[in-house]
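Researcher: Please translate sequence to structure tokens.
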Amino acid sequence: MSLLLLLETSGKNCSVALANAKSIIDVRSAAAEHFIHAEELHGLISTLLQENEYSFRSLTAIAVSKGPGSYTGLRIGVSAAKGLCFALTIPLIAVDTTEILAHHAYTVYPEATLICPAIDARRMEVYCALFDEKLHRLKPDTSMIIDEHTFTFYNSQQFVIVGDGAEKCRPFVDVNVSILNILPDASMMFKPTLKAWTESRFEDVAYFEPFYLKEYVPGTAKKNSL
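Model: Translation complete:
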């Protein structure tokens, strides 16, 4: 039986989950205004395994949220995932954080035809992407300053903005737009992780790095729209 360990540390929520090929088995998480990932992550993993009567050797793969998100959180999560995969000689799966949020938004709003994950990047900036009702990616992850031009594209579609940057988008959208202001969590990773697992989409443990995104954006465009 496959046993997958899921790690989500891209934001202030540090969370871990166990899953098999059918569903999430159990979840543990810890969150605070400051980052507590370095102190909490390995304890959460050990507690999760022990309380569900599994050992580290029971694991068949580890999935980690690869970003975009907090530099600190991503470094800690990816380092832990790589270390465990190397020690246990098991595959590493990386899942885009915006994809995790999009999957969760669709479970909450199955009528949505357009989903925009929005990850807080301080001030009026967000890391965002765009997905359709089949969770196909329409726009790549990008760093964006939110203003009155950002959401002019959605028209009358069933539009959902999801993530811990969603609330700062509210002043610039119609009242009918659904706002789901949440932090990513390991419990949201099941579907994209299972898809990667069944397709054998694994990362090179030695060379894999988090997807920071902002490092690769040369500047801010004058007009911001998806």
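Researcher: Any highlights?
Model: The first strand starts at residue 4 and ends at 8.
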